[in-house]
Amino acid sequence: MSRMHDVGGADGFGPIVEEPDEPPFHSDWEAHVFAMNRALVAGGVYNLDEFRDAVEQLPGYLTSSYYENWFNAMCALLVRKGVLSADEVDHVPGG
Amino acid sequence: MTHSSSPLAARVRHVEALLESRGLVDPVELDRALEAFLARASPANGARIVARAWVSDEFRARLLDDAGAALADVGLSMGGGLQVQRLCVVENTPAVHNVVVCTLCSCYPIALLGPSPTWYKSPAYRAQVVRDPRGVLESFGFSPDGEIAVWDANAETRYMVLPMRPGGTEGWDEERLAGLVTRNGLIGVAPV
C-alpha cells in the first residue's frame, strides 16, 4: 500500500514555485534541524531509513514545510526510542 | 539566515537543549559541521564534473559508465555522507533531454549540487514532472527538442544531468566552461 508521500503523478498540488536566489536554509532553526538530524543519525540514535519512515507517517506531511516535517519526525523518533519523553518535548519553556 | 522568534524556532531550540543535556549533540560541533557541509556541498562541484566531461571524451565515457569512480578524477566523491550513494549521470543529447526528480521524498546528490531548492522537494514538482514533464520544463521557461526522460531518484541512487555543451565555446578551458553550468541545468530544468 502506498503512503501519502508517494505523490508521483498525482493531481491537485498547484503550480511549482521557484524562489529566486533561494538560500540553503530559510532560517536558523531549519539549519539546526538539519545539523541535529545528521548528528543523531551519525551517533546511531536512529538510522536514515527509520527517519524516512517517520517522515512518511506524519499526519501533517503534505501541509507542513519540509524542515517542519524533519523536526516532527525527529521528535517522534526520539520519543519512540525513549531518548526523550513526550512531555519533555511538548513542554517548551514560555510556550 | 534569520534568527526566527516563531513558536517552531522555540520548539527546535528547546529540543536541542534537551539533546545537549543528554550529551547527544554539542551546539559548537553542530555549527562547525554545518559550516563545513555548506562549504563543501555546492553546485560548483557538479559544474566541474560537467566541464571535464565536455573537454575529455575519455572522462565522459567513464562518467557515464561508473560516475562514482570517475569523480575521483576531479577530487570528489559520493562518500562522506550518512549513507553510501550510487551516482548515475545521464547525458543530454539532441534526441533525449533528461530531468531528475525524487517522487517519494527529496533524494538528490547534495555533495555535487548543494542543498536542494524547495521546489525540488515540493509535492507539486514531484507529482507533476512524471505526469507532464514538458509542461514542467515550460514552467521553467525551457522547451527542449526531442524526447524527455525523467529519472526518479531513491535513497541508494542519485542522478545528475550532463547538459549539452553550448555552441560557440570551442577552445574554452574547463574553468570557463564550468561557469556556464547551473544547478537547474544539473537537475534538468534548464538547458545548461
From TrEMBL, chain A:
Q: Which chain positions lie within coiled-coil regions?
A: none
SUPFAM superfamilies, sorted: Electron transport accessory proteins (SSF50090)
User: What Pfam families would the database entry show?
Assistant: NHase_beta_N
Question: Which intervals hold domain Nitrile hydratase beta subunit-like N-terminal?
Answer: 1-91
* Region ranges (Disordered): 1-24
Gene3D superfamilies according to UniProt:
Nitrile hydratase, beta subunit (1.10.472.20)
Q: Which InterPro entries match?
A: CN_hydtase_beta-like_N, CN_hydtase_beta_C, Elect_transpt_acc-like_dom_sf
What is the protein's name according to its record? Answer: Nitrile hydratase subunit beta
Q: Which organism is it from?
A: Lentzea tibetensis
From TrEMBL, chain B:
One Pfam annotation reads: NHase_alpha
Which positions fall inside the Nitrile hydratase alpha/Thiocyanate hydrolase gamma domain? 8-190
User: Which Gene3D superfamilies does UniProt cross-reference here?
Assistant: Nitrile hydratase alpha /Thiocyanate hydrolase gamma
Alphabetized, the UniProt keywords read: Metal-binding
Superkingdom classification of source: Bacteria
Gene Ontology molecular function: any one? transition metal ion binding
Q: What is this protein called?
A: Nitrile hydratase subunit alpha
Q: Which organism is it from?
A: Lentzea tibetensis
Q: According to the entry, what is the taxonomic lineage of the organism?
A: Bacteria, Bacillati, Actinomycetota, Actinomycetes, Pseudonocardiales
